[in-house]
Design brief:
alpha+beta, 9 helices
Length: 236
Amino acid sequence: MKTTHRTPAVVGLAALAAVSALSLSACGGSTTAAGGSSSSAPSSAAAGMTTPSASSGMSSPMASGSMSADPAANLVGAGCAGYAKANPSGPGSVQGMSADPVAVAASNNPLLTTLTSAVSGKLNPKVNLVDTLDSGQFTVFAPVDSAFAKIDPATINSLKTDDATLKKILTYHVVPGQIEPDSIAGTHKTVEGQDVTVTGSGNSLKVNGATVVCGGVHTANATVYLVDSVLMPPAK
């Protein structure tokens, strides 16, 4: 489903210009620095995650029942084979993740520990998006741990108290509705409110320049694309 707007900086983030969230042996990728934004935007964006269907103005989400019976059937990305080999079974495997809602599935994935910390309130007690992420249908661009490792530790530390910026970054990784790999190329409006652009196809997908390590990973309520860089929302 290609979409444009129809179908998850800010002060102190200038250091992210050299770098670029709910993924596996990460490939190198570029990052986009975020500019300033109002503190009210992240709160409204997070609230918008509770209604990702018709009210979003985008195409209707793909129903879970339309997914392939085999969770690994539509995987794309050069890192998928390595991921499957390292996690052949259990809750962190492709099969295991398909049984749980996205935030729970991510918490079981050994490559998503930093993202899990960020969305669950462990990084910043004022930012906990678990219930929101698990209650709707989403496409999630999930940065693997090595993606966060590209960011200056001082910047990560600042997010422990800057809840507005953290919410903004996290919701920029989430698109309402589930989008399969064969329809993901194009421009999509995020829950944060701004667009992400997916280019390429098959094992060569990129999201705002970040490489999709393994995409089309299904959870009970989301389609996940593991990416090698943290996506930063553009300055408004």
